[in-house]
Amino acid sequence: MRRDQISKRAERRSHFTNETYAQARSLLRPAQQPIPAADCPEQRNFEADLFHEVLESHTDFTEFPFGIRRVRPHSDSIELVVESEKRAGRLLTRILPSYEPDGEVYGMPGLRIRQRSEHGIEVHIAGRRTSAWLTGVPSVVWRRHELSALEHLVDIGWKPLWRSTQEWSEEEQVFEQRWNKGEWARYVQAGAWCSSGLLRRLGIFHMTTPADAVTGYKGLGIAGYEGVGPVRWCIDVIHRRGVQYRKEELVTALCDPDFGLPVSPARHLDTTFPDELENCIRLDDEARTGLIELRFQTFNYSSLQINSCEPEYRAIAEGVERRIKRVQSGQR
Question: Is the pLDDT reported for residue 302 higher than 80?
Answer without folding.
Answer: no
